[in-house]
Amino acid sequence: MQTQTIEQLNRQFGLDHKDNTLSFRNGRGDIPVIEICNRHASALISLQGAHVLSWIPLSEEGGTNEDGIWLSQDAVFAPGKSVRGGIPICWPWFGQHPDNKPGFPAHGFARTCMWQVRATGVMENGNTRIDFSLQPDEQTQAMWPPGVTVGYSVVVGHKLELELLSENTGNSTVSISDALHTYFRVGDISDVRLHGLDDTEYLDKPDNFKRKRQHGPVTIEGEVDRIYVDTAGECVIEDRSLERQIVIIKIGSHSTVVWNPGEAVAEKMGDLGHNGYRQMLCVESANAADNTVRLAPGKSHRLWVQYEVRAL
Q1: N or C: which end of the chain has fewer CB within 10 A?
Q2: Which residues pair with 300 in a beta bridge?
């Protein structure tokens, strides 16, 4: 649990430069958040889950600055509760725990724990960097992979860079699956195409995880919940409504999860907001299913992604 006060965090890690500021305050649900503003972008990050809630790259052409990330208007902010939207961290497992152990939450515990800030700084190009770490506590000790440490870095600029680093300092090989469960903001899901997954195989969750093959770009016409396996390449969200594209580049990820609940499922969820499913698309850089990581003693695994918004 975070032990430093807002005042202590601002004193130790706050930044107040001419073109680059970083400050801490209490956010919704009295959960501490980090506000970042530099000449390239602004962002909001919750210390619970090291959860990026907003990233607005500033338009170099002087146009409207739009958030690249979607956050539900009905998102719940409470200690220990996952937030609908933003960029949740799924770690050290994706989906249900492989052993289906009682009390082990879906997608792991990293997204609902308080992360510790380790460092902040201004980079030479004007970007802002924040480094986090997560430590076992009474609630997570029984679920924590033995001997494994985890750190997370966020670089806020015209491009958003995220890096999740798992290191095995123990004596035994461990299995880890992970994902950056990013909710991208779109104008209208019916006008969106996702490129980069043509002719790849996926597991179709709504159809009992049947293996299927993608043909052409991914379009959303109802519930979509798929794990595209053995996919390490670039993906591009083509958004005709907002007249932009979001380019997703990744390293250390060999699965791509695509999710939109569709209208029927969204109505049962309760926290997506009115027609929220129409304004979001999850494209998650992951290591799941066939691509679960086996981490030998002394080895590390780096999951890195970069997002960029470009005009169509």
Answers
A1: C
A2: 167
**C-alpha to C-alpha distance for 212 and 203, rounded to whole angstroms:** 6
Report yes or no on 104 lying in a domain.
Answer: yes
Amino acid sitting at position 81: K
CA gap 62, 311 in Å, rounded? 12
- With beta carbons less than 8 A apart as the criterion, state whether 14 and 22 touch: yes
Number of domains forming the structure of the chain: 1
How far is the C-alpha of 131 from the C-alpha of 119, rounded, in Å?
5
Residue 59 backbone zone (phi > 0: left; psi -120 to 50: alpha; other: beta): beta
Task: Kindly list the strands in the beta sheet with 51-57, ordered across the sheet, starting from the edge strand earlier in the chain.
Answer: 15-17, 20-26, 32-38, 41-46, 51-57
Query: In this structure, what CATH number is given to the domain that contains residue 178?
Result: 2.70.98.10
96 within domain boundaries:
yes
Question: Is residue 1 a part of any domain in this protein?
Answer: no
Residues (pLDDT < 70) of the chain are: 1-2, 60-64
pTM to 2 decimal places: 0.96
Asked if 181 is an active-site residue, the reply is: yes
**What would the two tokens of residue 299 be?**
């080895």
Among the options 40, 254, 284, 301, which is catalytic? 284
Characterize the bridge pairing of strands 116-122 and 159-168: unpaired
Each residue of 47-96: pLDDT tens digit? 999 999 999 999 765 555 899 999 999 999 999 999 999 999 999 999 99
Q: Tell me which of 97, 181, 254, 301 is the catalytic residue.
A: 181
Instruction: Please give the pLDDT value at position 279.
Output: 98
Which residue, among 12, 83, 17, has the nearest Cα to 53 in the 3D structure? Answer: 83
Question: Bridge partners of 24?
Answer: 34
Token pair for 227 = 């794990």
For this structure, is 7 an active site residue?
no
**Residue-range definition of the domain harbouring residue 300:** 6-311
CB 226 within 8 A of CB 258: yes
In a domain, 212, yes or no: yes
